[in-house]
Amino acid sequence: MSVFEIAMLVCFGAAWPFSIYKSVKEKTSKGKSTKFLVIIIMGYGAGILHKIFYYYDYVVYLYAFNMLMVSVDLYLHLRNERLGRNI
């Protein structure tokens, strides 16, 4: 377990609640990219797979939690995009 890896995941993870809040409050998909969010999810997935196959430790839960938050943000982004088209 690396303290630097944990710090990175905590710092990245701290940003997602703000992004989710913005998506819920503003109900717009402006300033967000579906491709970007999918790439971030894939990156967290790669981190999880690395932890499972090569070096399992409890940091895998930080990867999973961050991946969950980005997935929620992606869902909200897609919902807001759909809402924007219906207006």
Per-chain topology:
Elements: H1 3-26, H2 34-53, H3 60-86
Characterization of the model:
It contains three helices and no strands. It has one domain (3-86). The protein has 87 residues and is mainly α.
What is shown here, in short?
The protein has 87 residues and is an all-alpha fold. The chain contains 3 helices and no strands.
Average pLDDT works out at 92
Strand content: under 5%
> Structural class given helices, strands, pairing?
mainly alpha
The gyration radius over C-alpha positions equals: 15 Å
Continuous helix count = 3
Overall tally of domains: 1
Q: Which shape, going by the Cα principal axes?
A: elongated
Helix/strand order, N-terminal first:
HHH
Strand segment tally: 0
Distance between the termini: 49 Å
* Largest β-sheet summary: none
The residue fraction in helices comes out at over 70%
Uncertain parts: none
Oligomer: single chain
